[in-house]
């Protein structure tokens, strides 16, 4: 099962763990975070997300650019399996 979310980041946000249904091991989720026309917005990641070297990434700060993150659920955490930063979305 693959889920995706597109979000315009128009203020600093805290991203909670995915909800609504119980995830199953092996499930994928992608998040496309797009800066608004101001840019420099941030995301604080819930502890349910795990990143390389345990370091959450900073979002691209450029107005109207986006970052795409993909995670796979291992039964207890959402492990980052890929990211594309500074995407031009025109």
How would you characterize the overall build of this protein?
This protein is 0% helix and 49% strand. It is an all-beta fold. It has one domain. The strands form two sheets. The protein has a five-stranded mixed sheet with strand order 1-3-6-7-5, with no helix packed on it. A hairpin with a 4-residue loop joins strand 6 and strand 7. The protein starts with a strand and ends with a strand. The model has no long low-confidence stretch (mean pLDDT 88).
- Mean pLDDT across all residues, rounded? 88
From the spread of the alpha carbons, the general shape counts as: elongated
**Unreliable stretches:** none
Count of alpha/pi helices? 0
| Radius of gyration (Å) | 13 Å
Major sheet: size, sense and barrel closure?
A: 5 strands, mixed
Oligomer: single chain
Provide the domain count. Answer: 1
Order of helices and strands: EEEEEEE
Span between termini: 28 Å
Side by side, the strands of the main sheet go: 1-3-6-7-5
Number of strands: 7
Strand % is over 45%
Which percent bin holds the helix content? under 10%
Helix-strand category: mainly beta
